[in-house]
């Protein structure tokens, strides 16, 4: 076989760099290590080194040859698939995980000292092994695997009787260009491969009338004498102190799920924070039958929910951004991408945006239904993924029917996975129902305003400045009475009130420093100034968010009008066709006037026809009635027709390489049209006069489809490309006559649509001759969502 097989099974098979390193960490776990130390050096400067050092059972030269160097070997398939010392369930079975080192670096150095029991089982003397694999030299100098030559060097090394066992791998000449952001993302992803102990430990508070709880969660299949497994990160991979305790302390509800053959149990409990807000909030212990008690899956889950923003330091807010979401773990190791920032495997972001009108019927036991009946408008309490932190924990036995995707990112979305998704979502919906029940009796309570002095002692000025309220009836002339009671307005007013109050209190503290010791006063004054600056920044941020919220409301209204405008466009098209008919009927003697009139009326009819076709495709009755599979060659046609005038005016060459016979997973035609319209509009703007656009599409390795839109215009820095997926971040600085000025919403809308199908959209390296490429991956889906 060609040596490029290493690249296919290593660099290209593993989805992301962090997954590659986690594969090596799993090898340490399978080797009965109690600790693995990850260290990074010189990653940003270039030619960096990552080392992986564990205290596991190690390898003899014989094991290194037969297991480590044998691709897809059967070493872990023999016997009971358990580790030799602690009887751990092996996390690897394919025999290619070690090749993930190829994705990370050009060279791998291995030094391993075997445990006495392992060494004596393979030879009479205890020997370790030292090896070097130069992947770059191997591929450049060797055509086939039979001609490895000097690219692979393996030597036995003698060991002292008292030498500690373990393995050290050094990945030298780390691949790619590393920026500070890439390093931070990489470190956070690697650090999250094991669940935090705060999720595994039982909660610090007691439930009301506690009937059942999970207690301590054991995510690994292991014996009682197993000392456990930890990851220590050093050098540039040191993540600092995690903030799980602070994040959990800000939660309002706790959900625990235990799904076994005899049924699925849900425990829902308010936290002390929730009981402060709603002292009457109740705990609920509910049950339903398992949909598939034979195949499963069987699992446990612990999920914390919070309402509102994470208040505290910027560090805590950033930590929440990175670690919020409901993650999934198999044998104690995280399964990506579930729980990532842009992953919506439970459909929570989708339903939050769409404001669904009700939950899918949850078939609880009769007594459970009586305990927690449906609450009117309960689904309006749905929150996005960022409001949850938690984990779903599967063992190898409990999740045996789940089939992992070959690139180690997720499971095939078959019936078993849908059962898992259904049960977890059942739990979250019941949690939302409990929240709605707790808040129903106080939903009409008013929020105190700053002007009314709602906090005792806050408005203590004996001669306060005139209030902005009307002195006669006390109403606020700037607020619509109906809007005043809406949850979004209430939340914003609460935030403004808190920040204004904080500013006032800081001013009072500043003014009370007169007469205090100078050194103490100066120190306190400095801290007060820093706090005041932070509050001021928070107020500015809140005002920006309010402005963005207002803009989104306006855009939503425009969208509704746009949907209704399809009838107006069809009417205008009919009138334009009448004008063209009248122009054709004019006598030829008036040719100087008739010819321009005919040309203009033709252009107007064509433009209106394109707009009418596009509007019908996007907002017509069939656009979102049924998801269907769409042939790749048809995917971009409506968008290209809409943009035809702009493309021709710029003399842009459009190349379509969409494989025939390939169809997308089931998707609403309107959503696919919006995706292509957003991508192609950006491409047309970027390509410029005489540019090129290439649209390619083909099946993806996971059974779905992937397509990309490339243009020959200005390139995008891939390291910074994620910023263009943030709302209102636009690359357009000038108003285009035909396409307008970008609002920075096209790519965020595209990502939200794609994420609803568990897909991915991102900037990728373009093909030769092109400057920028955006690629969309849509994985296969079973039936409709």
Written description of the protein model:
This protein is of the alpha+beta class and 785 residues long. A seven-stranded mixed β-sheet has the order 5-4-3-6-2-1-7. A seven-stranded mixed β-sheet has the order 10-9-8-11-14-12-13. It is 37% helix and 16% strand. It is globular, with a radius of gyration of 31 Å.
Determine the structural class based on helices, strands and strand pairing. Answer: alpha+beta
Strand arrangement in the largest pleated sheet: 5-4-3-6-2-1-7
Number of DSSP-assigned strands: 19
Distance between the termini: 42 Å
Computed Rg: 31 Å
Apparent shape: globular
Average pLDDT over all residues: 78
Helix tally equals 22
Q: Hey, roughly how much beta strand do the residues contain?
A: 15-25%
Largest sheet: 7 strands, mixed
The low-confidence runs, each spanning 5 or more residues with pLDDT under 50, are 444-486, 737-741
Oligomer: single chain
* Helical residue percent band: 25-40%
Whole-number total of structural domains:
3
């Amino acid at each position: 076989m060609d040596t490029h097989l290493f690249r296919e099974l290593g660099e290209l098979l593993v989805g992301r760099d962090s997954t590659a390193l986690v594969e090596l960490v799993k090898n340490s776990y399978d080797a009965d290590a109690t600790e693995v130390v990850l260290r990074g050096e010189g990653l940003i400067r270039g030619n960096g080194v990552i080392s992986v050092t564990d205290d596991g059972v190690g390898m003899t030269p014989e094991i290194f040859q037969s297991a480590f160097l044998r691709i897809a070997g059967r070493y872990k398939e023999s016997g009971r698939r358990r580790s030799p010392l602690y009887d751990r369930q092996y996390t690897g079975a394919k025999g290619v995980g070690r090749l993930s080192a190829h994705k990370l670096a050009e060279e791998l150095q291995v030094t391993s000292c075997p445990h006495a029991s392992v060494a004596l089982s393979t030879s009479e003397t205890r020997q370790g092994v030292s090896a070097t694999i130069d992947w770059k030299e191997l591929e450049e100098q060797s055509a086939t695997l039979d001609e490895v030559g000097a690219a692979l060097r393996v030597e036995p090394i003698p060991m002292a009787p008292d030498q500690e066992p373990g393995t050290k791998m050094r990945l030298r000449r780390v691949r790619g260009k590393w920026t500070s952001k890439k390093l931070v993302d990489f470190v956070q992803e690697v650090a999250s491969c094991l669940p935090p102990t705060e999720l595994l430990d039982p909660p610090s508070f007691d439930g009301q009338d506690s009937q059942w709880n999970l207690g301590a969660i054991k995510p690994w299949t292991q014996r009682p004498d197993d000392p456990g497994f930890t990851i220590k990160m050093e050098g540039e991979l040191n993540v600092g102190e995690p903030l799980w305790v602070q994040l959990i302390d800000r939660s309002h509800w706790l959900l625990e799920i235990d799904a076994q053959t005899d049924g699925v149990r849900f425990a829902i409990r308010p936290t002390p924070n929730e009981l402060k807000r709603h002292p009457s909030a109740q705990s609920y212990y509910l049950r339903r039958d398992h949909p598939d008690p034979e195949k499963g899956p069987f699992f446990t889950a612990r999920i914390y929910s919070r309402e509102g923003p994470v208040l505290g330091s910027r560090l805590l807010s950033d930590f929440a951004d990175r670690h919020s979401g409901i993650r999934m773990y198999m044998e104690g190791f995280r399964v990506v991408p579930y729980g990532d920032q842009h992953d919506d495997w439970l459909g929570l972001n989708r339903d939050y945006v769409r404001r669904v009108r009700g939950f899918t019927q949850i078939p609880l036991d009769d007594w459970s239904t009586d305990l927690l009946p449906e609450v009117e408008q309960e689904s309006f309490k749905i929150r996005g993924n960022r409001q949850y932190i938690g984990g779903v924990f599967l063992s190898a036995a409990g999740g045996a029917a789940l089939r992992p995707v070959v690139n180690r990112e997720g499971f095939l979305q078959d019936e078993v996975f849908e059962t898992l998704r259904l049960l977890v979502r059942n739990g979250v919906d019941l949690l939302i129902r409990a929240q709605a029940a707790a808040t129903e009796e106080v939903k009409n309570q008013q929020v105190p305003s700053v002007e009314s002095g709602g906090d005792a002692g806050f408005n203590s000025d004996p001669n306060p400045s005139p209030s902005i309220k009307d002195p006669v009836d006390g109403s606020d002339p700037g607020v619509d009475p109906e809007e005043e009671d809406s949850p979004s307005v209430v939340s914003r007013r609460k935030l403004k009130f808190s920040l204004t109050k904080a500013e006032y209190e800081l001013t009072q503290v500043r003014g009370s420093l007169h007469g205090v010791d100078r050194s103490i006063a100066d120190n306190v004054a400095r801290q007060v100034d820093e706090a005041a600056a932070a509050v001021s920044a928070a107020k500015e941020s809140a005002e920006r968010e309010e402005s963005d919220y207002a803009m989104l409301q306006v855009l939503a209204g425009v969208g509704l009008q746009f949907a209704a405008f399809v009838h107006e466009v069809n009417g205008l098209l009919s009138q334009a066709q009448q004008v063209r008919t009248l122009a054709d009927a004019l006598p030829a003697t008036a040719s100087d006037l008739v010819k321009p009139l005919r040309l203009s009326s033709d252009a107007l009819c064509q433009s209106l026809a394109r707009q009418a076709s596009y509007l019908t495709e996007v907002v017509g009755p069939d656009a979102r009635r049924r998801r269907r599979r769409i042939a790749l060659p048809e995917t971009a046609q409506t968008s290209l027709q809409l943009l035809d005038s702009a493309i021709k005016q710029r003399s842009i060459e459009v190349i379509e390489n969409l494989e025939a016979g390939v169809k997308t997973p089931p998707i609403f035609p309107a959503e696919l049209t919006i995706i292509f319209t957003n991508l192609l509009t950006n491409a047309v703007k970027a390509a410029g006069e005489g540019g090129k656009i290439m649209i390619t599409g083909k099946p993806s390795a996971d059974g779905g489809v992937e397509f990309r839109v490339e243009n020959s215009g200005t390139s995008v820095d891939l390291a910074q490309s994620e910023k263009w997926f943030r709302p209102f971040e636009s690359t357009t600085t000038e108003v285009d006559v035909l396409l307008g000025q970008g609002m920075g919403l096209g790519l965020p809308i595209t990502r939200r649509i794609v994420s609803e199908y568990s897909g991915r959209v991102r900037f990728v390296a373009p093909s030769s001759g092109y400057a920028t490429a955006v690629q969309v991956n849509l994985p296969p889906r079973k039936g409709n969502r």
